[in-house]
Amino acid sequence: RAATPELELGALNVGSRPAKRNPKGGVESLRAIPWIFAWAQTRLNLPAWLGIGAALEGALAEGRGPVGKEELCKMYQEWPWFRTTIDLIEMLMAKSDRTIAQHYDERLVADKELLELGSHLRERFEVTEQSILAISGHSAPADDYPALQRSLRGRKHYIDVLNVIQAEALARLRAAEAVGATTGYDYMTTKDALLLTINGIATGMRNSG
């Protein structure tokens, strides 16, 4: 929650239900769609790949488990459902950017343990990406979709700027809320800027998670 705009998504008029069942609650109070949307905003796309890397890493390691690299590669070539699943994860990883996600952590997260968790998650992202590419045989995510790669490269520079602006807006809004300064012109214009970045990033990435 500290590293994403998950709490602030409630101010955006999307969906028919609140972003959280209880804004002060824990994980059990989260709603799935805003939670996934929040991670897509920070470009980590965490729910799309978390856990997959650990499962594939074990299978790809020699002599571990009933299914190895050869079987997984064969499944990718011959089983349409498995290929589609791997390709979808690969596409979302092509849209991800660990450097941008790290910027959110550095700008918004003060707790040392949470910063360490963020670093660990980015390391798991790299492991997952390597495992996915080992199965697909691609040299980079979305290698089979050159048009998508060109499109992402063309949009990246604009979206990166929106991410930096969003992280700064979140930092300023939260600082103002911490001291109860939520009625002034600066607060309201910063809130408007945040909502524009949320829309802009979702449009630029062409997915909301």
Automatic annotation (TrEMBL):
InterPro entries: PEP_COase, Pyrv/PenolPyrv_kinase-like_dom. GO terms for molecular function: phosphoenolpyruvate carboxylase activity. GO terms for cellular component: cytosol. GO terms for biological process: carbon fixation; tricarboxylic acid cycle. Pfam families: PEPcase. This is Phosphoenolpyruvate carboxylase. It comes from Strombidinopsis acuminata.
